[in-house]
Amino acid sequence: MADALKTLAVVQHTSAEYLGLIEDHLELRRIRFRYFRPFTAGGRTPRAEEAADGLVLLGGGPWAASPGERRLPSLDQELELAAGALESGTPVIGIGLGAQILALAAGGGVRPGPLEFEVGTARRVVDEALAGCLPRHYPLVRYGPDRLMLPPHAYTLARDEAGHAALFQVGERAFGFAGHPGIKSAIIEDLIMEFPEAPAETVAPLAALRARQAELHAALGAVMTGLIRCLGLMREA
Q: Which of 81, 161, 182, 236 is positioned for an S-S bond with 22, CB 3.0–4.6 A?
């Protein structure tokens, strides 16, 4: 029987983007989570001890991990936090911009690119990915600029239709998702309204996301089962 001792530190980069559908899966398993909002007045990134059970780095809308005027203001602190988590073996989940931060912290890089909103399909390339739970194909929703460049020791677990890494693993307990696996169309709508910058195309991708929301929801169940198992987030009483 699992107890409720685990609390994930979740770093939020925008008002609009949060865990989304992932919240339900954590609550179902009595895994707690605490949001940190460094972009707000008085907000900050978590201290290492506050992220000892696990660290989640969310996406950031138009914010980037590459140099420029849209460089994430809290990037340096988050890189240090992620690097420390990797060194200590703390579970890490990076999503979108968070996956780019994870890649950078592990010795990889980021290739600058335009702000994009894409709805496509990821394909599993490692059968044992996420303890064998990762679906063979699943919806991939990516909103943000740039492309991550993996460090040499990372494992690509899934790829998008263009061959880019859609899901990767660093070490035993760190995973980076190029797209948000628990995204809701309302999150995208709020991102578009929150910032003056928006992708060149939003209408068609939003329609595609709404059409595939049920498929995304179903895939997330398998993803979360495997992810929680691999990260050791369920303690036995």
A: 182
